[in-house]
Structure formats: structure tokens, C-alpha cells
Design goal:
Radius of gyration: 22 Å
Shape: globular
Strand order of the largest sheet: 4-10-9-8-7-5-6
Structural class: alpha/beta
Number of helices: 14
Distance between the termini: 28 Å
Number of strands: 15
């Protein structure tokens, strides 16, 4: 394991058994349901890309609290900004004028292209997407919204309709007016080839497309046109799309898909919304925002997670025209844009620039992708390696010919093995078949090499047990 100079504080809190008892009997049942690993990890402290459990064991964190810790756990600069603001003013609301919200908003809009210059601050990604749905419907006067199959846009009653994954659904009416189109997944979908996506790594599927044409893209666009023809009215409210699917397993689309989809949506009166909750703030490496990699400008951008390095915060950024449509009533958010959140968010923006985290994402992420692609060639169960920057998915299969998902028990076995060797990664995909690698954007090549060695050993262990 790479060396770390930081030493955690001695742990003197409740025992792991006490925590587990409370978790089982007093925390809501969902807490246990989402607990990772057969033998849970009891985390007590973090520093940059590292986490320590209550027994002092150190872990390399390659999941960042679900792509949320952007610049590093307890980053000294961000921690100092939080402490400074906590000594000055914890809370007030937008009925008063206070500096931190204006300082933050000015910095944020400077990072977005025209005409995306009006900001609404929230406390989470679900809340931001919920608000974006309302704004789109009010602005267009239309109701229906389209998303991708396999997408995740939140767990509120409204955003649950946008989310297209059975695991996050309940048997109640939710998200009325939400529809989905086929995800243009060039690995698992019916169409795909070997130069479809904007990534250092392509699928192993072959195609006969000319260099300037993607037939898979045309077929997936035809599926969207079918939705327009059969499922929604002639005028719609919006199209939601993550630049790269997050919970869906780092799924990437053909290079021109979003450009063509945005044109079709706007022809039908809809607005185009980029969900940057996981892809934003330089995580894809090549661009600050994921949508920039598709050469599009959305009408709204939603963001959260890495926006404040793990502190609860979210945002919707839109145009002045759309914002004016939303001013007919009163929208008020007690905690959105509070002084502490804005101070932390502002420090995160500064730290991204000062520490060069976008450049780290590009360099280390590309290295990881290329090395994982080599591993794909060695192991039959590694079906796909994809992503950009530090937004990476490794899709596991029974075999490359069928592309059938690796069963959940097998995924859990590898997942546990990687954890036991000191690395924390995530899982995703409609069938839970994709390992997700989305670390704090401060990791090093040495860290990447350590993970690669661990993951390779996990593949060897899995193969030998068969």
C-alpha cells in the first residue's frame, strides 16, 4: 500500500458491535439494506484519498462516498474554510443579504458558458432535479419528461419517476409524466462498435461504420424518435440526461447522441437538462462539465455531490429566461445556499483550481482506464472498461460472447475480496454488474498501481476458486 504521512486520531468511541446493534434496531431498515460488504467497514476518520476504520486499518478510497468527496477527505483548505465560517455565522436565509452566497454564485457562474448564469441553491441532487422538473414544466407549459433507461436522478417522489432502475422504485404513483427511452449503451445495448464513445477505451464489439459516421448512434436516435411518435404528446417539457451515467455504471453514449437528442427535444418545445451530479467539477478530466464533452449547451444544469466535497449542497443553473418563468410564485428554501455550505463550496472551487484536480482526473484516470483495458484482455469475466477521467466503470460478465451479467453473488465475492485487500470501490448498473471507480480527485499514479495490483489479484482469486 502506498505510504501516507497522516496519522489518524486514536479511536475511543463506541465499539463496532454497539454500532451494528444500533444500526440493526434503531436506524431505519434501509440503512442495513444499503450497508456494503458481508463484513461491514466501520469508518472513523478520513484524510484526502484515505479512510481508517475503528481498528486503525487504512483503506484507499476509490468510491469517494459515491463520487461525492471531490478534492479529498477533510481537505485542509476546505476544512479551514468551514471552521472559519462556523465561527462567524452558521445560518441565515435569503430574506437577508450575506456575503458568502454572492461570493459563491459569482465564482460558479464564471465556470459555465452563456446563457447559464442564474443559480438556485439546494441541499442535494434529488432536490436540484426535483426543482429542475418544476421549472421546465412551468417554463414550457408542457408536462412530459424523457430520461434514459438505467438512469438515476434521485429518490424524491418526483425524481423517482425520472429514475429508471427497478431497485429504486416503489409500488406507488410517482413522477407522473416521466418516460424513458432506450439507453444508447454501446456495450450492453443492441448496437455498438469499436469507435462509438469519447473514451480512451472502446468496446471489443466490431462495426463497419466509416470514420465520420456511427450507425449505432442512428439506431439509438431512432429509438428516441419512436418514443416521440408513440409515448408523449407533440410538445414536451424536458429531456434529462447524465453526460455519463453514474449509478447506471459509467455508461457512455455514442459521441453525437446528445447533440442530436437536444435538437429533437427542442423542436418539440422541451428544454434540455444535464444532470452533472456525478460528472461535474472536472471529474471527467477533459472538461469541467460533462456536457462539454458532448459539444452541447443545456438549458439547465443540475449539480450536487462533489460541489461541496461531501457537505450537503446542490444547485440548478439555468438561463434568465427560464428563471423568469419561475418567479410567478414564491419558491423558498430554508437551508439552500446557507453560509456554511457556500463557504465550503467556494473553497472547493478554489481548491480544484489550486490543486489541479481536473488535470489529475485526466492523467490518472486515463492511466487507470488503459491499464484496466489490458486486464480486460486477460480475464473472460471483464466485459467492458469505460469512462473518462476518474468516472470509470468495469462491467463484469459471465463471458464475453454472451455479455450476460456476472451474478450478484459472484460480484459480491470480488467486491469483498478487494475490500479485504484495502481498497474501497462501488457497484452499479441495472443488474449490479459494474464496478464503479470514482475516487477523490487527488489520487496518485502510485495509488492507481496499488488498486490495479489488488484488482488483478481479486481476478486471480476468483478464477482459482472456480
Amino acid at each position: 500500500m502506498p505510504h501516507c504521512n497522516f496519522r489518524p486520531d486514536p479511536y475511543q468511541g463506541m465499539t463496532a458491535n454497539q454500532m451494528l446493534h444500533i444500526r440493526q434496531h434503531n436506524c431505519n431498515p434501509m440503512t442495513m439494506k444499503v450497508t456494503s460488504y458481508k463484513k461491514p467497514v466501520f469508518i472513523q476518520q478520513g484524510h484526502m484519498q484515505w479512510l481508517w476504520d475503528v481498528d486503525g486499518k487504512r483503506y484507499l478510497d476509490l468510491f469517494a462516498g459515491v463520487a461525492t468527496v471531490s478534492v479529498g477527505h477533510c481537505h485542509p483548505k476546505v476544512t479551514a474554510a468551514a471552521e472559519k465560517q462556523l465561527r462567524r455565522l452558521w445560518h441565515t436565509t435569503n430574506i437577508y443579504v450575506y456575503p458568502t452566497i454572492h461570493e459563491y454564485v459569482e465564482k460558479l457562474v464564471a465556470l459555465l458558458p452563456e446563457p447559464l448564469k442564474v443559480v438556485y441553491l439546494t441541499n442535494s441532487g434529488s432536490e436540484a432535479n426535483d426543482l429542475a422538473m418544476l421549472m421546465a414544466r412551468l417554463h414550457t407549459g408542457n408536462f412530459d419528461i424523457i430520461t434514459f433507461r438505467g438512469s438515476y436522478h434521485g429518490g424524491s417522489p418526483q425524481t423517482m419517476g425520472l429514475t429508471s432502475n427497478m431497485a429504486y422504485k416503489y409500488p406507488v404513483a410517482s413522477g407522473l409524466g416521466c418516460h424513458n427511452t432506450m439507453c444508447p449503451d454501446v456495450f450492453r445495448g443492441p448496437w455498438g462498435g469499436d469507435h462509438c464513445r469519447d473514451s480512451p477505451v472502446q468496446t471489443y464489439r466490431q462495426c463497419s461504420c466509416p470514420a465520420d459516421r456511427c450507425q449505432a448512434n442512428d439506431m439509438y436516435i431512432n429509438q428516441l424518435k419512436e418514443v416521440f411518435a408513440t409515448t408523449v404528446p407533440s410538445r414536451i417539457a424536458a429531456f434529462f440526461g447524465e453526460p455519463i451515467q453514474g449509478v447506471g455504471g459509467a455508461v457512455q453514449y455514442p459521441k453525437d447522441y446528445l447533440k442530436e437528442a437536444y435538437r429533437l427535444v427542442r423542436e418539440r418545445g422541451g428544454v434540455c437538462i444535464a444532470d452533472e451530479v456525478q460528472t461535474g467539477f472536472g471529474r471527467t478530466g477533459s472538461h469541467y462539465w460533462g456536457f462539454q464533452g458532448h459539444d452541447v449547451i443545456p438549458d439547465m444544469v443540475t449539480m450536487a455531490k462533489g460541489i461541496a466535497n461531501g457537505f450537503p449542497m446542490g444547485a440548478v443553473v439555468t438561463t434568465s429566461e427560464i428563471a423568469s418563468s419561475f418567479s410567478k410564485g414564491v419558491h423558498f428554501n430554508t437551508f439552500g445556499g446557507n453560509p456554511v455550505a457556500c463557504a465550503i463550496g467556494s473553497s472547493v472551487l478554489d481548491t480544484i483550481e489550486e490543486d489541479g484536480t481536473q488535470e489529475i482526473s485526466a492523467k490518472v484516470g486515463t492511466y487507470l482506464l488503459e491499464e484496466l483495458a489490458k486486464m480486460r484482455g486477460k480475464y473472460e469475466i471483464i466485459g467492458d472498461v469505460r469512462g473518462k477521467g476518474l468516472m470509470i466503470g468495469v462491467e463484469m460478465v459471465k463471458d464475453k460472447a454472451s455479455r450476460d451479467p456476472l451474478p450478484p453473488a459472484d460480484m459480491a465475492e470480488i467486491f469483498e475480496d478487494v475490500k479485504d485487500m484495502g481498497v474501497l470501490i462501488g457497484k452499479g448498473g441495472v443488474y449490479g454488474q459494474t464496478f464503479r471507480i470514482k475516487p477523490p480527485m487527488c489520487i496518485t499514479k502510485e495509488d492507481a498501481d496499488y488498486f490495479l495490483a489488488v484488482f488483478n489479484q481479486a481476478m486471480i482469486n476468483y478464477t482459482e476458486r472456480r
